[in-house]
Amino acid sequence: MSISVCVFDAYGTLLDVAAAARKAAAEPGRETLASAWPLLADTWRAKQLQYTWIRAITGEHADFWQVTQEALDYGLEAHGLAGDGHRERLLQLYWELEAFPDAEETLTALKKGGMKTAILSNGSRDMLQAAVDSAGIGDRLDAILSVDEVGVFKPNRKVYDLVGQHFDVRPDEVAFVSSNGWDVAAATGYGFHTIWANRAGDPVDRLPWRPTEIATNLRGAQAVIEDWEIAA
User: Which domain holds residue 55?
Assistant: First the structure.
């Protein structure tokens, strides 16, 4: 296969979505968050995804920042943290998410190999730009593609269409990497060559499509893409 573009999901794939809660919990005066932050981070992320799916299905689109705030409000209440003064700090830190340790080196290696690289994300343009700038990976990306351009969240096919529209490539010329099993499944169904960066070692989702390949991290995904290029 001939791959010319490698596209990454952002949140949870390149960017560590747990970093906001983890960093806030380590700050002085946030003792109530210190022991609960892993549960909060998990709930925040789960609700964030669930809300995007429901909005995609019903056609009730909203900016990803609104969805992120609503998901956090649910998580804070669910874990008895509402009203403890954590909300604004957590939201601020979400604009400054850290990249996973292997993100920068993976993007760098792919770029050096002649690959075009991009983000395809549910995130709004301004959120993504801020996070990419904070993580220091912007110069390793050829494009940041946001659902803002189509007004619907993944896994709607209009989102995956953005890659071909921007780079003028067919789906079979695209490698798509995500840590979200449902995202990889939908992208496989769309026609991308997919790699699931399965850091947690989760089972494969029971959906009509499976990932083309599975890796444990981004370096593993990079190795798969390089093998595909060698075999082409």
Answer: 19-94
Q: Which of 94, 126, 149 is the last residue of a domain?
A: 94
Summarize pLDDT for 21-69 with one digit per residue, the tens. 999 999 999 999 999 999 999 999 999 999 999 999 999 999 999 999 9
- If asked whether residues 56 and 115 sit together in one domain, one would say no
129 three-state secondary structure: helix
Task: Tell me if residue 102 is catalytic.
Answer: no
Both 151 and 69 in a single domain?
no
DSSP per residue, 21-68: HHHHHTSTT-HHHHTTHHHHHHHHHHHHHHHHHHHHHHT----HHHHH
Residue 23 and residue 97 in contact, taking contact as beta carbons nearer than 8 Å = no
Whether pTM > 0.70 for this model: the answer is: yes
Q: Are residues 49 and 73 in the same domain?
A: yes
